[in-house]
Structure to design on (904 residues):
């Protein structure tokens, strides 16, 4: 620790801390443009000048490391004169277009000009004109005139993300930020440069000219798109969510970076497909009429066939409080024990193994078990890169395709489809392993702190993971990367999240043992691992009552629809993939008759004839370990999986592999539509050449038995030969309705299916 | 009786004297007073000589308004057919003339000199909604007769 004095106050900080961070700990604000804690010192803008005793000239606080006994003054005539001079230089070519600049009102150049600026410009020559408002990606506008060349955006993309898509061009006064070779930035992290830009140079295109900081509601929220649940700020204007920004959480060592899939999909809250009318038997009705009818029909069903004839399934996207209200309705009002959660994978993680992002930051070894974090949980990929910057981290990928990538290099162990758990079991079981696999076994067992990212697809892996944790001397943490967004919150609310619960309900339904099925935001046909079972169940159940924001297909299977308020419209608690409970506030208004789940459920209970009093006695944070959900030790050791059945792939057929791709599975969004991947299927380049696929990608037909689907496919060297990768939840190819134990046929297609843009 | 007439004449003396004085009242609305050019009446939105609006929808008037009487919604115009002199313009500009206290801060805050308070002060309507002046109304400033 080093002790120093800043503005007469003494503080001890770790060695190597920059003066600007030490001052921030004392609550002293030093102006900065180029410095960012995630990027380290650069000293490009020089606005952070401070006076340090025994140093003859002003020093930049962001590049000066603290020294024992240092005496720093962050104010006074010399400092203010220095900053005033720097600002005058920065403003020489800065246009005076604050009235039309989106940053106006929340701009550091404005703020510092008020605090330190001279108030007038001595520079009389005309300002250099540059390109204004030109797109550098589907979502980002660049105004080169407003740029102060702090290089935060360039360093973020190059150093932090590892995708060098922005660069400096030109020399001296003609230096500008531009994209590499004029190509648009395609990184899913590019949107963060909007938050990083301290001036109005990089702007959000969807938010362009939309609002001003004084006419918006800006509330702390959590991203609702994937289970990472990034801390963010939602901007509400006239009752609509119009922007999502990252929110740093210093106490969790989180810089508040988001991915573009989360940042630019907030418009699902007013997407045309959003439910805005209550329906009964296919006809629009007032919500109260639907509630009365549903309550009465449920009561009749319970009277006739008993409470166990009603099944309740949640989609795990609503808040913990709302999931709890649903559980109360199911158990206390209806009295059924058939309550479950629809999740897209069959694996059940023993919660005792649940790790945190803190574990990830400290990890010495990371196993990617079936998941490519860049695609499924993009911000976790950034967190992994962050950990690698601090210390060496060994990365192993174990799955049916290559899971590491250039920005996260490691060793890949590619196995047969559906053999992930078996391979992990074999690695732990010792036995006859070749040298390469021996290295994996040794690494997994001996690395000091292991974190496993598990996609949950292979149910047998739970047992192997428990075995791995038991065999290891050091700590083992598992982070489940599968959705839905708030499935751990549903666990907190007392809803069984294991695959067996949902499967049991759907099997009962398919066999005609259920008289009614209540869905809260659940789309079993799209999401449940066995889509055919879900489809049979929904067809067979006499009445399916749906509450949620987006109606599942087929609509005719739904006896009643009650639109609900969703994220950004309600304040409530969510649990992320660490099981960490956090509160998200609302900033928008629910459309039309959509209402929050709690009043909906109490009204349903009243119509049912058994009023439900949801008092304030439920506190998601009560009885928890800190702010994380309770993680009881596993009551029973997960069973060793049965040996997987051999793959039934005939000559000329392809193996079907799948995985979570958040670019596909995010909620419907018109903003995100512009960067939608038209070729979501992926093939090995050698296979693609044999098929005759065009270099940029093209349409292929995937068929199995009588089922035929057409979707765009492109080359990807990370897919092994003979396999076709279909993202989970892709509407064109519902992979959960195909038999993954058997092969599929793949052929070029010329028909352009609906929903896919023609080439 | 004479005393009676004298008393009446005496009582009306001031009135009768005033008959020949110039009148202080004017027969409104046939005649109207001249106001100072600085008089702060109803708002207007100015245009330049090409017909482009001066307002760029920056919202500073909205921010500074102590009565929260102004609402501005900005948008970007098509490059070929700009509404204002620049890309950004106000789609909606509303002044609630019932809330407005005619302080003139909006005029002072406006960076493009677009919003101005005219001397027009004949504000009357049959409903409160009619007292909300929208953009079309503000772009066609009323003329004092």
């Amino acid at each position: 620790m080093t002790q120093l004095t800043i503005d007469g106050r003494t503080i001890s900080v770790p060695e190597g801390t920059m003066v600007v961070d030490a001052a921030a700990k004392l609550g002293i604000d030093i102006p900065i443009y180029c410095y960012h804690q995630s990027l380290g010192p650069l000293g490009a803008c020089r606005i952070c000048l401070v006076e340090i005793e025994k140093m003859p000239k002003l020093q930049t606080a962001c590049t000066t490391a603290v020294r024992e006994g240092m005496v720093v003054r962050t104010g006074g005539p010399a400092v203010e004169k220095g900053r005033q001079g720097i600002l005058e230089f920065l403003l020489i070519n800065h246009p005076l277009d604050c009235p039309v600049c989106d940053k106006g009102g929340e701009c550091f150049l404005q703020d510092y000009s008020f605090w330190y600026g001279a108030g007038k410009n001595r520079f009389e020559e005309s300002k250099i004109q540059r390109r204004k408002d030109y797109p550098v990606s589907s979502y980002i506008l660049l105004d080169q005139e407003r740029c102060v060349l702090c290089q935060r955006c360039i360093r973020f993309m190059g150093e932090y993300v590892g995708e060098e898509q922005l660069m400096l061009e030109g020399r001296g006064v003609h230096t500008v930020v531009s994209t590499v070779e004029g190509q648009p930035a395609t990184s899913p992290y590019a949107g963060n440069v909007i938050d990083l830009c301290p001036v109005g140079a990089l702007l959000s295109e969807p938010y362009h000219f939309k609002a001003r900081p004084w006419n918006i509601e800006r509330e702390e929220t959590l991203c609702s798109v994937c289970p990472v649940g990034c801390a963010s700020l939602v901007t509400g204007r006239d009752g609509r969510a119009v922007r999502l920004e990252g929110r740093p959480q210093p106490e969790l060592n989180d810089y508040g970076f988001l991915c573009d899939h989360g940042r630019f999909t907030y418009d699902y809250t007013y997407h045309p497909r959003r439910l805005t009318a209550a329906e009964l038997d296919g006809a629009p009705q007032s919500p109260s009429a639907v509630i009365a009818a549903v309550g009465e029909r449920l009561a009749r069903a319970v009277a006739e066939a008993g409470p166990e004839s009603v099944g309740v399934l949640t989609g795990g996207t609503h808040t913990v409080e709302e999931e709890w209200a649903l559980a109360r309705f199911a158990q206390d009002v209806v009295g059924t024990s058939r309550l479950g959660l629809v999740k897209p994978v069959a694996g059940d993680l023993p919660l005792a193994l649940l790790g945190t992002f803190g574990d990830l930051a400290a990890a010495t070894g990371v196993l990617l078990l079936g998941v490519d974090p860049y695609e499924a949980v993009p911000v976790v990929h950034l967190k992994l890169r962050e950990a690698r910057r601090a210390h060496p981290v060994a990365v192993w990928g174990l799955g049916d395709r290559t899971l590491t990538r250039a920005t996260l290099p490691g060793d890949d162990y590619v196995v047969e489809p559906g053999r992930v758990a078996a391979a992990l079991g074999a690695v732990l079981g010792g036995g006859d392993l070749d040298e390469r696999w021996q290295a994996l076994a040794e690494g997994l067992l001996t690395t000091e702190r292991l974190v496993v990212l598990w996609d949950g697809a292979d149910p047998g892996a739970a047992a192997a993971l428990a075995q791995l944790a038991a065999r290891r001397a050091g700590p083992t943490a598992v982070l489940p990367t599968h959705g839905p967004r708030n499935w751990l919150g549903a666990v907190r609310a007392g809803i069984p999240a294991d695959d067996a619960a949902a499967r049991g309900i759907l099997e009962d339904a398919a066999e005609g043992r259920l008289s009614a099925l209540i869905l809260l935001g659940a789309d079993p046909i799209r999401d449940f691992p066995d889509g055919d079972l879900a489809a049979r169940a929904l067809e067979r159940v006499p009445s399916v009552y749906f509450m949620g924001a987006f109606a599942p297909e087929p609509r005719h299977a739904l006896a009643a629809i009650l639109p609900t308020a969703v994220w950004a419209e309600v304040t409530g608690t969510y649990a992320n993939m660490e099981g960490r409970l956090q509160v998200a506030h609302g900033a928008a208004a629910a459309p039309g008759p959509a209402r929050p789940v709690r009043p909906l459920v109490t009204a349903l209970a009243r119509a049912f004839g058994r009023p439900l009093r949801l008092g304030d006695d439920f506190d998601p944070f009560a009885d928890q370990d800190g702010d994380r959900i309770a993680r009881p030790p596993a009551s029973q050791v997960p069973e060793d999986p049965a040996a997987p059945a051999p793959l039934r792939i005939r000559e000329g057929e392809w193996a079907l592999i799948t995985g979570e791709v958040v670019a596909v599975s995010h909620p419907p969004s018109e903003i995100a539509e512009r960067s939608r991947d038209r070729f979501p299927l992926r093939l090995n380049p050698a296979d693609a050449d044999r098929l005759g696929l065009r270099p940029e990608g093209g349409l292929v037909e995937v068929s199995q038995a009588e089922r035929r689907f057409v979707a765009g496919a492109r080359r990807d060297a990370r897919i092994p030969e003979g396999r076709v990768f279909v993202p989970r939840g892709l509407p064109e190819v519902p992979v959960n309705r195909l038999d993954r134990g058997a092969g599929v046929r793949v052929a070029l297609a010329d028909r352009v299916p609906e929903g896919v843009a023609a080439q | 009786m004479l005393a009676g007439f004298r008393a009446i004449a005496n009582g009306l003396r001031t009135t009768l004297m005033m008959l020949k004085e110039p009148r202080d009242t004017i027969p409104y609305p046939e005649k109207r007073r001249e106001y100072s050019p600085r008089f702060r009446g109803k708002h207007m939105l100015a245009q330049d000589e090409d017909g482009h609006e001066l307002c760029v929808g920056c919202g500073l008037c909205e921010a500074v308004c102590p009565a929260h009487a102004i609402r501005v919604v900005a948008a970007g115009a098509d490059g070929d057919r700009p509404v204002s002199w620049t890309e950004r313009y106000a789609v909606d500009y509303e002044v609630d003339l019932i809330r407005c206290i005619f302080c003139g801060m909006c005029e002072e805050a406006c960076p493009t000199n677009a919003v101005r308070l005219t001397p027009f002060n004949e504000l009357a309507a049959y409903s409160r909604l009619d007292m909300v002046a929208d953009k079309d109304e503000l772009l066609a400033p009323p003329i004092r007769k």
